[in-house]
Specification:
With 417 residues, the protein is of the alpha/beta class. The protein folds into two domains: 26-69 and 107-222, Rossmann fold (3-Layer(aba) Sandwich); 74-105 and 226-404, Rossmann fold (3-Layer(aba) Sandwich). The protein contains 17 helices and 14 strands. A six-stranded mixed β-sheet has the order 3-4-14-9-10-13, sandwiched between helices. It has a four-stranded parallel β-sheet with strand order 7-6-5-8, sandwiched between helices. Helix 5 crosses helix 6 (134-146), helix 6 (134-146) runs parallel beside helix 8 and helix 10 (217-225) crosses helix 12 (255-261). The longest helix has 16 residues, at 368-383. The protein is globular. The structure holds pyridoxal-5'-phosphate. Pyridoxal-5'-phosphate binds at residues 105, 107, 134, 210, 250-257, 322-323, 367, 369-370, 394-395.
Amino acid sequence: MSAIIKPDEADDLLGRELRGELPDERGRFGPFGGRYVPETLVPAFDRLEAGVHEHLHEPSFQAEYRRELREWVGRPTALTHAPRLSERWGADVWLKREDLAHTGAHKINNAIGQALLARRLGARRVIAETGAGQHGVASAAACARVGLPCTVYMGAVDIERQAPNVDRMRRLGAEVVAVTAGDATLRAAIDEALRVWVSDPDGIYYILGSAVGAHPYPYLVRELHRVIGEEAREQMQRQAGGLPDAAFACVGGGSNAIGLFYPMLNDDTELIGVEAGGTGSGLGQNAATLATGTPGVLQGTYTIILQDGDGQVQETHSISAGLDYSGVGPEHALLQSVGRVRYISATDDEALAALEELCEFEGILTALETSHAFSAARDWARENPGKRLLIGNSGRGDKDMPTLTKFPAKVRSHAGA
Ligand SMILES: *Cc1c(COP(=O)(O)O)cnc(C)c1O
C-alpha cells in the first residue's frame, strides 16, 4: 500500500532483503527502520549496537544461546500435523508449536537471548517493558536464569487488567513498576523504560519485547527468533515431505512472524501475516496497522503506524492484548511494500471462532493472538484446496482464560455416545 517505494526500487530492495543484506549499516530496511531518537538516547543505542555487533554471532555466544534454547526453553519445539483440521479445511495443515516453549510462547527466545547478551555486556541490572505481561514474564524468567535483577515497567491500566501475570513476574523475582504517565499502557511503559535506560546506559540493559523500536532492536529480535523458521523448514521437509505452499503468523509488533518468515523468504512459500481486525475498520476499532495505516515515526523507528490526519497516534483495539499496538516492525513494512509478504486481518469474532475450532478438533487451546492466524489460514485453505499449510502457533491460551470466561463454553453430554 505504501506509495513511498517506486516499483524499480522495490525489485532492488527485495533482492537485498533476500540476500540477507538488510538492515543496512544505518539500521534501515529500505526507507523503513533507522533510529529516530532524542540526542540523550544516542549513547545508549550506540553502545547496544556495538555490543550486538561484537557478541551476537560470535561462536561462544551462539553456543551458549543454543544450549539455553535446547536445555531450558525446550527447543526444537514440535511440528505437529493437524489431521482433523486438515480434513475439515481440505488442506494439509501443520503447526509450529511455540506454545510448547518454556513460559508458553515464542517470546522466551528473545528474552533469554537478550538476557545472555546483557550478562556479556557487563550490565548490573535489566529493565523491560510489558503490555499484556507475557514479555514481562519471559524477561523475569530469563533474568532469574542468568542471575540479573529485573525491573519491569507496566502501564497502571495494564497492571489492573493483567493481575495474574504481575503476580507471576514477582514470583520470578522481578520488580514491577506501575507507569501512570500518558495512556498508562504499553506505549507509556516503553517511554518510561527508555527514560530509565538513559540514566545509566552502562549499568542497565533494556530487553525490548518485539521486532520494533530503533535500530538495532528490530534486527536483534529477528536474529533471536529466526530459529522458529529455521526449525520449521527443516521439520516440514522431514515430516511433511516438503516446504509449505503457504505459511501464516499473527502480527502484533511482528516478532513471531518475522522469526517464522525470515528463513522462508527465498522459498516459493506464500507468506501471510495476520493482524487484529478488532470490531471493525474504523480508526480505534482495530490494530490492523499494515492493512490500514500510513508511514510515520513511532518509538524511534520509521514504519507504518495507525495515526489520524494530524499525525496523532491512535488508540487500538483487539480482543488479544498481544496484538494491541499502534505500530509494527519496520521489516514488515518493507516486506509489504515490496510485495513479498501479504498482510490481512481477522476480527475478534473470527479469532474466537478459530480458537474454539482448534480446541475442539486438535485438543490445543491456543492464544487469542495466534487464533487470528488460524482464522485467515482456514479462509485461505477453502479458496486453495489441497495445499500444504504451515501455521505459527505462537503461544498457548491459558493466559486468556479471564477473557474467555466472558464467552461461555458449550455444555455437552456424551452419555449416549
Ligand atoms: C506477544 C504475543 C504475540 C504478538 O507479538 P509479536 O511480536 O507480533 O509476535 C503473538 N502471539 C503470542 C502468543 C504473544 O504472546
